Amino acid sequence: MSKQTINIGTTPNDGTGDPLRTAFDKVNSNFDESYFTSIILVNQSNVATTLGGTIDSTKQYFIDGSIDMSGVSVTVPSTGIFISGTNLDLSELTCADNSYTMFSGGTAGNVFMQDLSLEVTGTSSQVFDLTDATGFNATEFVRVNFNNCTAIGELNGYRQGLENNTGRFGGTPEMTLSGTWLGGYFIDTSIVRGLTDGGYSLYKAGTAFSMNSRFRTNQNIDLPASASFFNFSPSNFVNPSTVQVTGALVSRNGTFDSTDSNITPNITQADLESAWSNNIGMPNTFEGGRLTVSSENLTNIAAGSTWYTLNAIWSASGLEHFDSPASGQLRHLGNSPREYRCVVNFVIESTANNDIGIRLRKWDESASAFVDFTERRRDVNSFVGGRDVAFFNFIFNVSLDQNDYVFFQVRNNSGNNNLTLELDSDFVIEER
Q: Would you state the pLDDT for residue 22?
């Protein structure tokens, strides 16, 4: 519609302008044209021709009230769909049809939704079945509730996803992530309550799921007896430390149990892909590890003041993002964090009054070279009963990038007397 120009007359009060009613009709027409240029109002009477018709990706679809979508499905085009409402209570799309999908599209674009609720309750029904047309689109759900949903459904091959201030209330709201995601999926400020029991997960890996960036969440969740939080495997994530659960609150029927393995059945906090911290009701990741002397072995000193690898039978424990590639070594497998401290508790037996030195040695993978830390020296104490030992209790700070590893060397600065690292001596690598 073209702009309606009001005739104001030639001079004030000359009687040649538009009558007052005519002028205000033109004002209303101009307002309607301006206001609705970018908005399509969706209500119960027109839903079949608006959301059920060809989607106009240049328009914002505004949900006016609670709308029954029975018999109406939305086909998301490659150019995307943009939907908003008044708020979570006043704007709602519902459907109780069986074998129903509310939003589908084999070549879909962006899906942006805010300030509304979605409810799909029929048997074998779901909210989404969408495959990204290009692999560079996104889904965003801002102030969106999923109420009593049989399933949220599948998102395949999107670049990234975002949830901000979302809720899952009732039903079995499983979301499936499939295909290659070049970006990640981030859930910030989200609550889950009152779910129906069953063997499902809030988030699960679908066909050929691979995420190049992070899956991050801080959700407040109460699960029923058999459901899981997420069902991913380490192989679904390309990079270390990209399954990020931070500040989450996870209970099952109101009870917190961080030893409940069914919360995340196929991935643990210790896996290289995990970075879990400050959570209640599920484990946290403590990057590092411990080597403890489980059996004593003599370290032969062929020449005084010469460095030798400290010999022992070592047992590894608490390895998270670390392994022990060879006896006495701890290796960093991840790429973040990189700042660690090494806590040392060694008791070394040798000849009384000998000056014993130890040092931390690091293999720097990027430089293909060893880095030697400052020597720490102690005298061998002569105790009653013939037990002559030196005590080493201190902390090193060390930067460890991926595939860097550390171990300890020892030397006798007083001669070539042999020495033994005693049983239960240990060192620990932990994040600073």
A: 72
